[in-house]
Each structure stands twice: as C-alpha cells, then as structure tokens.
Amino acid sequence: MRWKRLIGGSLVVGAATASLAVGGANLWISRGSAGDRYAVADAPTRPVALVLGAGLTASGAPTPYLAYRLDIAKQLFDEGKVEVLLVSGDNRTHSYDEPTAMADYLVAHGIPATKIVRDFAGRDTYDSCARAKRIFGVDALTVVTQDYHLPRAVATCRALGIDAIGVGDTEGRKYADAWASGSRREKLAAVKAVWDIRTARDPILGNRESGVQDALAAP
C-alpha cells in the first residue's frame, strides 16, 4: 500500500506543479499584452504588420483562418495603419510554402508586391517574432493573428524587444469547434512561449535581410 501512496502523492505534486506552470505562464502573457490589442479602426500606426502563418489547404491556398488574417493586414494597409506587410510562415519543404501563398493572396487582393516581404522560416510564433527583430531589423510592428492567439503573439514580440501591438481576427468564431480547440491549446502554448523566452532559444537564423527597409523605401 505504501508504494501506491507514494505514486499517488507524486501524481498530485506533479499535477499541482503543472497547474502552477500553466497558470503562471498565462498570467505573464496577459500582463505582457495588456493594453496593446486593437480593432483595425483604433490601431495606432506602425511601419510593419507581421502576419503569422496559419496553414494551407490541400490546393496550396491559405486556410480560412489565414485568409482572415491577410484580410486584416490588407485593411491595415489600405487605412494607412502600416506601410509594409511581413508575411511569416513555414517553408521547410519545397511543396509547402506559406509565405508565398500569403503574398500571392495579398497581391490578388490589391496589395503592391513591393510592399510585401516574405519570411520563409516563421515556423512558430516565437520564431516569427525573433526573426522579425534579428533578421529583418524590425523594432515596431502590428502583429496580426486570431483574437485568441493575439495575447501570446503580442507578449512574445514585446519580450523580444519589439514595440508590438496587435489586431486580432474574430471572423473565425464561425468555425466554433476550431476556435474552441485553438483557445484551449493557447493555455498550454503559453508555457512553451515562456520557456522559449527564458532560454533565449535561437530560431533559424541567417544573414540580415534588408527586405523590410527596401519595402519601406519603395514608392
């Protein structure tokens, strides 16, 4: 019976520790993003919008969630809230190219190609924020994603030294199951975000790129 008590006690301690980690991480994210989330009409101006990837369909087009993000980025651009759109996504295989699909969507919807910059190594939120700062030299931006994801995205970018605000999509709520699943997943993703920041994990790096500065200078 003693070993059963020991196992039971260990499980209780483990569950309590995990609960504290999740709760602490989410509190940090809430505080780190407070006051920095806006609707398009109310958003302060920033030079760059960072649009985070959200998957492609089997045909290679943006998923509905990604299309909603891109639509917000277009609104920000059209209203003069941002000058350049930095589209950051996954391109780890030749057959899967989120940034190019994102750029093609924006061009098809009237955004000049000269005002779009592609980041091909934005494999997750942390990587996209870190690369915006370290590879593309961005110091201030508006991050665009789904509303439930926005606190983590803003807090992560700000923790990495970027003057970040955010505009979140709410159209995706019509996909109720996906929205609920994403919201639940955010609770655990907060722990990874805090770990990445505390350990200063390096994303995929490379030479500094002038694409954002070139796009800002383009007429």
TrEMBL record:
Domain DUF218: 48-165
Coiled coil (UniProt feature): none
Pfam families cross-referenced by the UniProt entry: DUF218
InterPro entries assigned to the protein according to its UniProt record, in alphabetical order: Cell_Envelope_Assoc, DUF218
UniProt name for this protein: ElyC/SanA/YdcF family protein
Organism: Nostocoides veronense
